Amino acid sequence: MGQHIRVAVAGAKGRMGQEVVKMLGQDDRLAYVGELDTREDESAVKARLEEMKPDVLVDFTTPHSIYRNLELCLEHGVRPVVGTTGLSPEQIQEMDRRYSESQLGCIIAPNFAIGAILCMKFAAMAAKYMPHVEIIELHHDKKLDAPSGTALKTAEMIAAVRQEQKQGHPEEKETIPGARGADYDGFRIHSVRLPGMVAHQEVLFGATGQTLSIRHDSINRESFMPGVNMAIKAVMNMSGLVYGLEHLID
Question: Which domains are seen in the chain, by residue range?
């Protein structure tokens, strides 16, 4: 069966963290070694890492703590699997270089649901042929960032293949600021925050005489666990940073 992968979880008491701990207990290849509370002072966090000796740290904490957590992992030879977004493109490039130099793997994924990854891929395929597009993302009202990391990643993938153009009427005017959503490379992203939701995204395409809708819904947080499991196993054989789970699937 091979050696267990030792996994620590930052944010283990949170909603996503609890699901991760449950998933780890259901896989014989993975061993949960404990929680890392990154809100503690740095010496306590370092002592806890040295005590647990994890191979992988799964991090579902907050956007402002990611960079520090990645640095701690580098110092202790730990491979992070991060489900929290918030790093700038420059920070991602810097961490890719530093992890490559340390010959450690690192995965940062805006979304771990396999269906959401397929939604992104399908949207990028469609954008080549239907460049008029808008993204609507819908999440629970406790989410801190808007638009979501998934929507931004989808927009990046669309922009990479889409014929650049500004959508809507050239003399369009917002009578209420923000009514048309955020402008990304000439198309729009809309963020909805309501209680009762988990994570949802719809990508809408329009062309003469036709529309296309690509939608993904995470009904509960268990939907993210197969992707987290896959990332934990994949990161053990990587060097450098991978941003987005789409790089791990065909």
Answer: 5-112+222-248 (3.40.50.720), 114-220 (3.30.360.10)
